Amino acid sequence: MAEMTPLATMNDLDSYHVGYTGQEKLAEKLLQSVSASIRSAAGQPISSGTYTVTIPSEASRKLDLPTRPVTGVSSVTLDGEAITDWTLLGNALYREGMWHTPGQVPVPVTVTFTAGYIPVPEDIVRLVCSFVSAGLVQDEAGGPGAHRDMAYERIDDGQVGYRQGTDEVVDATELPKATRDMLRARFGSPGISIGVFR
């Protein structure tokens, strides 16, 4: 599988005043890594592209596509046979008849379609830039894992506090649970298609 284009660019880092002078290669790697983490948490590629998926048919007139927003469909095959008796509405394909007969085993439906956002939503671009910045700062402090358990350090009276258990931060570019949950809620595909029955 080809590597996807990052959700933000070096120009975006510049516009958000993220300094990376002398760390250009690391900044590019972090753009890829953070974008992959955000896509994984969202369960979607987010950026626009053409995708081919094979999903099981449903005993329904409706077939939800797994990536959003769907902007076009170029081909559909049902159990290996090309079909054209479908209509794209929103992020789902509809047919006059069902995708398969109730009580029968589902068959593969292969769909080639375009989906995603042009441009990438600006809050997502900023999110990528924020985590890239954190990764660059972490690299200057020794890289992932360095000082991973240190929560705070006070100069006066020489105090150092440490994180423990699940609060420990190994990599500054790791998305917090609240961020992962927000991305899944915003971009995630539906878990179950109820469908429209005749």
Please give the structural blueprint.
Blueprint: H1 10-15, H2 24-42, E1 49-56, E2 62-64, E3 70-78, E4 81-82, E5 87-89, E6 92-94, E7 108-115, H3 122-140, E8 150-154, E9 159-162, H4 177-187
Antiparallel strand pairs: 1-7, 2-6, 3-4, 3-7, 5-6, 8-9
Helix pairs in contact: 2-3, 2-4
User: Unreliable segments (pLDDT under 50, ≥5 consecutive)?
Assistant: 192-198
Tell me about the largest β-sheet. Answer: 4 strands, antiparallel
Q: What would you call the structural class? A: alpha+beta
Quick check: average pLDDT?
87
Distance between the termini: 39 Å
Structure commentary:
It contains four helices and nine strands, in the order ααβββββββαββα. It has helices at residues 10-15, 24-42, 122-140, 177-187; strands at 49-56, 62-64, 70-78, 81-82, 87-89, 92-94, 108-115, 150-154, 159-162. Mean pLDDT is 87; it is low at 192-198.
Features:
23% strand, 198 residues, alpha+beta, single chain, elongated, three-stranded antiparallel sheet
Briefly, what is this?
This protein is an alpha+beta fold.
